[in-house]
Every structure is written in C-alpha cells, then in structure tokens.
Amino acid sequence: DGALRCGSIATETPSGSSFPTVGRALSPANCPVSLTPVSLRARDAESGYVIQGAGWRSAVLPLVSAEMGNLSGQPDRQMLFALEQHYSPIDRADGPRPYVYEVRASGLVARWRGSALAWPLLDAVLLPGGDGVLCALHRRDSFIQLEPGAAGVRTAAYRWNGFGFRGVEDPGILERCRALFDLDADPQAVDAVLGADPVLGSLVADAPGRRVPGAADGTELAVRAVIGQQVSVASARAVAARLAASLGRPLVEPRGTLLVTFPSAEALAAADPALLPLPATRRHTVLTLSQAIADRRIVVSAATDRDELRERLLQIPGIGEWTVAYVLMRLGDTDAFPATDHGVRCALEALDQPADAAAAARLAEAWRPWRAYAVQHLWDVEPTSAPRTAVKRRGGRLAAQTARAVRLP
Q1: C-alpha closest to that of 20 among 173, 154, 182
Q2: Which residue of 5, 19, 47, 276 sits 20 to 30 Å from the alpha carbon of 184, by its own alpha carbon?
Q3: Are 352 and 324 in contact (CB under 8 A)?
Q4: CA distance to 135, 216, 225, 251, per residue, from 181 (Å)
Q5: Contact residues for 273 (Cβ-Cβ < 8 A; gap 6+)
Q6: Residue 138 and residue 407: Cα distance in Å, rounded?
Q7: Are 190 and 211 in contact (CB under 8 A)?
Q8: Rounded CA gap, 141 and 126, in Å?
Q9: DSSP secondary structure code for residue 19 in this structure
C-alpha cells in the first residue's frame, strides 16, 4: 500500500545457525511521525524510499522498516535503525538486513551495514597472504539490542569473493583468528591477579577483560618491531608503507587503499639496501634478520620454543631485550614484559611509580604470570610527561600502530 512499516527492530542468531534473523515481528505505524526530524517519501513500490532532512536527501533505500533512536552511551547522536532488503553472499539469500545510520545535519552516515558481516564488529584483521581472508571478532548479541546480559564474543573468518564476504569454516584459519584476538586467554584469572595489585587495580576495574593482540605474520611482526625502535609511530608507519610499496606483492584484487602484502623475508633479504629507508645500523638489522628468517634459522612463530626464539633473536646485531619482549608478547607469551618500553615507563610515572627500567622490572614481579596483560593496561594510561630517565623507545605506541589491545565485554 506504499506505507512503510515501523516499530522495534531486533535480530537474533538461532541455535545451531551461523546467520542472524529478524527476531521480532514489526509493528505497522506511520513512519514520518516517528522519524522526526527527518521524513520519508516513497519513490515507488519497486525502488524503495528516500529519506529527507533539512537541506539534504538520501539516495533511494530499499527499506522494509525504520525508526529513530539512540545507542546506549551516545544519547546526543540521533540514529536511524532500518531493515533494508538486500542480497547477502553470506547466506546467499535476499532478505531484510539490519542497517544503522547516524543522522547528521548534512545527511545520513552509515555506521553499520548488516548485509555482509552480520554481527556487530569489535575488531577485524585481514590475514596476510593475499587470499582475502578477514578475521572478525563479533559480539554475540544483536547490534540494535545491546544487552549487557548477552555478553560474549564469537570469532569468524570470511573470504572476499569480489562482491562481499562469505564465511570460511577452515579450522586452521579459525585457529589463527582466535590467536589474533587472544580468545584462548582466561580473563578472570588475569584480572584476579592484576586487579588485586595496588598499582593496576583501578585500571583493571575500569577495563576488565583486556586481551593481548596477536600477530598474523611472524616476519612482519619482527621486522616492524625493529623498524619501530627509537622512532615515532608516524615514522615507523611511513617506513613500513614504503617497504610494502617497493617490495610487497600486489594483491590480485586490491581493496581500497590495501594494494600490496607486506614483503616476505626472502624479498627483504634480497633487497637493495638503498630501498630500505632506515639508518645504516637498523638497515643492517632488518637485512640480517630477514635472511635468518628466510633461511629458517629463525622461525618467528608461537609454535617455536620461546627460549630458543629469544636466544636466536638476540644473536642478531641491533636486536635487544625490548624487541624480543615485544615480539614474544605478540606471539602469546603471557609473561613477556618490555621493562625499557617508553610507553610503560611514561605510564608508571603518571601513576607515581619509579620509571626507570630496573624499578619497572621489580614492580612487575608481582604481576607474573600476566605481565603482558599489565602492559596493555599501562599503554592505556595517559602520560603526564616523558620519564626523566627514559630511553627513547616508542614500543608503547608501536602496539597502536600494528594492533589494538582488544577490550571485550
């Protein structure tokens, strides 16, 4: 009849299913009334509706239902919650998909699209290798019904098929995804130790359940750790981008600004040193490390014995304790602790603790065997100033460059 149905919109994932469905019947209503300050106009029965605000008009949207509202914790943002009729390559069906838009003075801004990755995203990482596999960390509850009681997460893997993402059920890939998001950790055990500490207790209370981000590729992890020594995040990122542009392998299907893979150890080891925009000593470190990885004398992997990996990395000129601790931490060593890290020491000084490396190491003894998780909390502390005795390392900011500390509900 040309009228748009409105009402509560919720999704749920049926038991045993991998795809969400519309979980509640929609109530017919007069949408232009409930959608103030925007209005709806039916384009025609086939193409859908246009949403119009003061001085702007949206594209034609295949709306099934829509309503205005707010998200928890964001009362000042007006949001449009909609069901739109779309085909999804995940379930290979045409059906209603939940979409969320922020309503601004200039128009609609899409905040979540439910036609592809069907659960609300906490984090996502594209695996290296050029085969288009995306590891995604999702909330288990519906995006629109953010119920604290429905806490929990799920890991999924998707492969790009040229039109959208389809689910991947390969156990090996899913295991890599779990490691990336540290989903096999025991946050209750970690928080029990760190939360009882007088220095970290308030930090843990403010952000319980922190995880340590993993790494998708050992070569990239180790090389970027070396690049990040004694430089700013912006400089390290620029160097890594230049290396990828000159030595990386082009993707068969580029995606936006993602055009190439990070260079392999073989490509780096064989590279003209002039292509490495680094100081001479660090350039030598990268080349020596890459050759050792290419020759399999060093295997940067969570499966490698940690003591062996530590010993072999320290044999590379230019690699010291900070680099080793950072690499081991990202490979799953729960007790790795970079005592000389600039970010850690800035945080300790902001918390009125001694900021020299020796004092930091002594203080961290109480955090065993979860010192790597303590680092995640310290990296989130707003520093008041640089430590007076600080070595100019930027490890605490390197983590923000390569992976985010995942905070789970």
Answers
A1: 154
A2: 19
A3: no
A4: 9, 10, 19, 24
A5: 283, 287
A6: 12
A7: no
A8: 23
A9: S
pLDDT average per 10 residues of sequence, the chain (409 residues)? 47 53 43 62 69 85 76 68 70 68 83 56 70 74 45 73 66 86 90 96 93 91 91 84 90 71 93 89 95 96 94 96 96 95 92 93 96 96 59 33 32
Give the β-pairing of 48-53 and 165-168: unpaired
- How many of the other CB atoms lie within 10 Å of CB of 386? 13
Tell me: cis bond preceding 369? Omega within 30 of 0 counts: yes
**32 CA to centre of own chain:** 38
What are the contacts of 62-67 at 24+ separation with CB within 8 A?
Answer: 62/86, 63/4, 64/5, 64/26, 64/96, 65/4, 65/5, 65/6, 65/7, 65/9, 65/26, 65/96, 66/4, 66/6, 66/31, 66/35, 66/40, 67/6, 67/7, 67/8, 67/9, 67/31, 67/34, 67/35
Tokens of 370: 């979860």
Report how far apart the first and last C-alpha atoms of the chain are (Å, whole number): 43
Which candidate, 337, 361, 371, 367, places its Cα nearest to that of 198? Answer: 367
Largest CA distance in the chain: 76
Beta strands in 114-265, from DSSP E residues, in sequence order: 121-126, 133-139, 153-160, 165-168, 250-255, 258-260
DSSP conformation class of 25? P
CA distance 298 to 302: 12
The DSSP code sequence of 270-297 is TS-GGGS-S-HHHHHHHHHHHHHHHTTS
Q: How far apart are CA 108 and CA 50, in angstroms?
A: 11
* Beta pairing class for 133-139 and 121-126: antiparallel
What's the whole-model pTM score? 0.64
